[in-house]
Write a structure and sequence with these properties.
The complex is a heterodimer of chains A (about 300) and B (about 450). Chain A is α/β, with parallel strands linked by helices and about 300 residues long. Chain A contains 12 helices and 10 strands. Chain A has 3 domains: about 170 residues, 3-Layer(aba) Sandwich (Rossmann fold); about 80 residues, no CATH class; about 45 residues, no CATH class. Chain B is an all-alpha fold. The termini of chain B are far apart. Classes of the chains: A alpha/beta (about 300), B mainly alpha (about 450). Bound molecules: adenosine-5'-triphosphate (ATP) and magnesium ion (MG). The site of magnesium ion (MG) has 4 residues of chain A, from helix 2.
Chain lengths: ~300, ~450
């Protein structure tokens, strides 16, 4: 994105504020004193080498993990700021924070339609009694749920695959279905964990334009973890770079690209562990020169980013 | 090699080295072993009578015949599996397609219902009893457990505890227990109270334990089932102890001039059961296809994703658990009132397992499957018992059930009438995606 958009979004209020968060698992420190803010309607990208703590950050923001130190505040500048830490994941989702998973966790035996409808219905109130007796409200909600589900499937371009079982969908469709399910819960903030990992170039382009439309047409802020620098550079208003659980750089794509600490982190990983950098295309010029193969990361020795 | 040198005997020699032959051998020997195991036992005076009494009797032939049948099925399946499957699909598909039309469907239901009303009237008294005590009650129990195991994917091994709670509540409210209720009720009016008691027990047990992962839940429920039985045995002052409780009155209905009493006859109970089974079928079908049912399916599929999609996992688990518990409790009242007598020995863990087997056999998550599974598996032993050729001994039941489950898991893991969702889950699990069993996946990093 261009710098003018960034300037415009910095004026808007904040959607989420992560304040000095530290997360440990026994001796492993996944996140160390992380602070970041995201503005409303912003696409903020979190990048970093494998194991940098990106997914851990998502898990803290969505209530899956509880950080030992620090606070996370949703809509910090609104009339009713809410703290996320200590809330159960489904409560966090109710607040308006939805997510997808790095390893694409769909309800595999259910149809695409059912997957999305489950997300949509999480905001409804039909209980067992209403369901057993087919009360009017239940029927109204069923109807509304069906319509909304169709809209969302249309939005992500899966309308004609609605009745297919999720496990049978091709990879790009699975990713989009997961996004549709997350959108079904009517979030204000959408967290996407490597949506383009393992996708082919055409699927990546589709996903990029879908993410852009999520922001521009629905007006949702997007927090995006992505290894593919092409996707990140084209979408992100701002980028936060993590390495070993710490924020090492932050700024617009062009600022980050020039940041010596970032170049160091990516080159450093290559030198020390033989890790490939996330992708050389959009990475800092120095990195790009060192690494010629843009899709190199998919052959890297990180099983997690390849996991489906 | 040798087959090549001797072309005449070649095919026979090849046969005896083949998988078919090994299977045949296994099946026959297995059948004989089972025949001996289930036959009479020897004694000091006639040490070999265990063998002679079981091998040189017509029943040995029955077992061998069953073994051969199993072999034939296995062989046939491995040879002509695809052909059969296609034919099977076509045979099943045709009535299914007919039933898509809602009028045909209603006519079909009506016909089944009419049959269910008419048929028992021509049965003998013995089979009417079987129809209520062995089949009807267990169909209801299976339908309830199907909600817990099939819909929500929770492995409940203490399901019968709620049956006991229902039965003892009925005994309490009708004044049959040593401790007396504030007022004596007819069991018919005790139904809501006893169902409520079973449901509350479900919530109380479920709320803390359903936070646990699948395998722990199985252990806790198993323990709970034992506790209830032991309490019923030892709390003599309250429950009547191991002697049991006698004198639980039959259902009766007095509304103004309308007066009806369910006496010892089985048939009136059958119709009462039929009404409740139909209600349960309709209610659970609606549940399955509603938001609640989809939430259960989501939880069963992927708890982490379900939570991330805004589903209160614990709430829906407790809900499924207590719906199952109340169904079980209801079956308990019905039995207590029909038989008029309950004792702790009626509520063994084995019974919980039996109901689980009924559900698994019929098809987890499939209403028709659970009902049919229960009906068939409860009817069959009775049939074999009274049939002179088989001379089935009821105490052997679990041997056969175990064997049946093994065979089922090989040939039809989703049950005799599989649910669509379950079938695709099991298909996926075979390809290494997901778990498909009631014991949900382990923890670990969330990615
Ligand atoms: N549940 C857990 N238990 C123990 N350690 C964990 C857990 N979750 C994450 N970690 C550790 O935290 C560190 C950061 O992991 P995380 O998954 O957040 O990395 P990431 O940046 O998402 O990497 P990738 O690009 O490979 O997805 C790793 O060292 C990982 O082993
Ligand atoms: Mg990750």
């Amino acid at each position: 994105m261009s710098d003018s958009t960034t300037a415009a979004t910095t004026e808007a209020d904040l959607i989420i504020e992560v304040d000095h968060v530290t997360l440990r698992f026994g001796g492993v420190t996944s996140l160390l004193d992380i602070s970041l803010v995201q503005h409303r309607h912003e696409i903020l990208s979190v990048i970093g080498p494998n194991g940098a703590g990106k997914t851990s950050l998502f898990n803290c923001v969505t209530g899956v993990y509880v950080p030992q130190v620090g606070s996370i505040t949703f809509r910090p500048e609104s009339a009713h700021p809410v703290t996320v830490v200590g809330r159960k994941p489904h409560r966090v989702n109710r607040l308006g924070i939805a997510r997808t998973f790095q390893s694409s966790r769909l309800f595999n035996a259910l149809t695409a339609f059912e997957n999305v409808k489950i997300g949509v219905e999480s905001r409804f109130h039909t209980g067992p009694v209403g369901a057993m007796l087919h009360l009017p409200r239940t029927r109204r909600e069923e109807h509304r749920g069906d319509n909304r589900t169709k809209e969302l499937l249309e939005f992500v371009g899966l309308r004609d695959r609605a009745d297919e079982v999720a496990s049978g969908l091709p990879y790009g469709d699975r990713r989009r279905l997961e996004i549709a399910r997350a959108l079904g819960t009517s979030p204000e903030l959408l967290l996407l964990d490597e949506p383009a990992a393992g996708a082919n170039p055409a699927e990546k382009a589709d996903l990029s334009s879908l993410i852009e439309r999520v922001r521009s047409e629905i007006g949702i802020s997007v927090l995006l973890i992505e290894h593919d620098m092409g996707v990140v550079m084209s979408l992100a208003d701002r980028i936060v770079v993590l390495n070993f659980g710490e924020v090492i750089a932050e700024g617009t794509p062009s600022q980050v690209q020039r940041d010596p600490a970032v170049i160091e982190a990516y080159l450093g990983t290559v030198n020390e562990n033989g890790h490939e950098p996330p992708a050389a295309e959009g990475a800092p010029p120095a990195v790009a020169q060192t690494r010629q193969n843009p899709s190199a990361h998919s052959g890297g020795n990180s099983p997690s980013s390849e996991e489906r | 090699m040798s087959a090549g040198l001797q072309p005449r005997t070649g095919s026979a020699a090849r046969f005896w080295r083949s998988t078919d032959a090994r299977r045949l051998f296994g099946c026959v020997v297995g059948a004989l072993v089972v025949a001996v195991m289930t036959g009479p036992s020897g004694s000091a005076s006639a040490p070999t009578s265990g063998f002679t009494g079981s091998l040189f009797r017509p029943r040995a032939f029955v077992f061998v015949a069953l073994g051969l049948a199993l072999w034939a099925v296995m062989t046939f399946r491995s040879r002509f599996g695809d052909v059969v499957r296609r034919a099977n699909d076509r045979i099943i598909a045709t009535p299914r397609q007919l039933l898509v039309n809602r009028w045909y469907r209603y006519i079909f239901y009506l016909a089944v219902f009419a049959f269910a009303i008419w048929y028992p009237t021509i049965l003998s008294g013995y089979w009417q009893e079987v129809l209520v005590d062995q089949i009807g009650v267990f169909v209801l129990l299976a339908l309830g457990l199907n909600v817990v195991v099939g819909y929500a994917g929770l492995l409940d091994l203490g399901y019968i505890a709620f049956y006991a709670i229902g039965a003892y509540s009925a005994a309490y409210w009708t004044g049959a227990l040593p401790i007396h209720p504030p007022m004596h009720l007819n069991p018919f009016w005790a139904i809501p109270l006893a169902v409520l008691a079973a449901m509350l027990a479900g919530v109380v047990l479920g709320s803390p334990t359903l936070r646990l992962r699948g395998d722990y839940l199985a252990i806790v429920t198993l323990g709970f089932g034992e506790i209830i039985q032991i309490v019923a045995t030892n709390l003599t002052g309250v429950t009547g102890g191991s002697q049991g409780v006698i004198g639980i009155p039959h259902f009766s209905l007095h509304v103004d001039s309308l007066k009806y009493v369910w006496h010892v006859k089985a048939l009136p109970y059958y119709y009462l059961l039929l009404v409740f089974v139909v209600i349960a079928l309709a209610a659970f079908r609606s549940l399955e296809r509603s938001r609640v049912g989809r939430c259960w399916a989501a939880i069963r599929e992927d708890e982490v994703a379900a939570e991330a999609s805004g589903i209160n996992v614990l709430k829906y688990k407790v809900m499924a658990f207590s719906i199952g518990a109340s169904t079980s409790g209801f079956a308990g009242i019905l039995t207590a009132s029909k038989i008029g007598f309950i004792e702790p020995g009626d509520f063994t863990v084995q019974l919980s397992i039996l109901i689980l087997v009924l559900v698994v056999f019929g098809g987890m998550g499939s209403l028709i499957g659970a009902a049919m599974g229960a009906a068939v598996l409860q009817w069959l032993p009775q049939f074999l018992r009274v049939h002179p050729l088989f001379g089935f001994q009821p105490q052997d039941l679990f041997i056969y059930l175990g064997a049946l489950l093994v065979v089922m898991m090989i040939f039809r893991p989703a049950g005799i009438v599989p649910s669509r969702r379950r079938r695709s889950e099991i298909g996926l699990a075979e390809h290494g995606v997901g778990t498909a069993d009631a014991m949900s996946a382990a923890g670990g990093p969330v990615a």
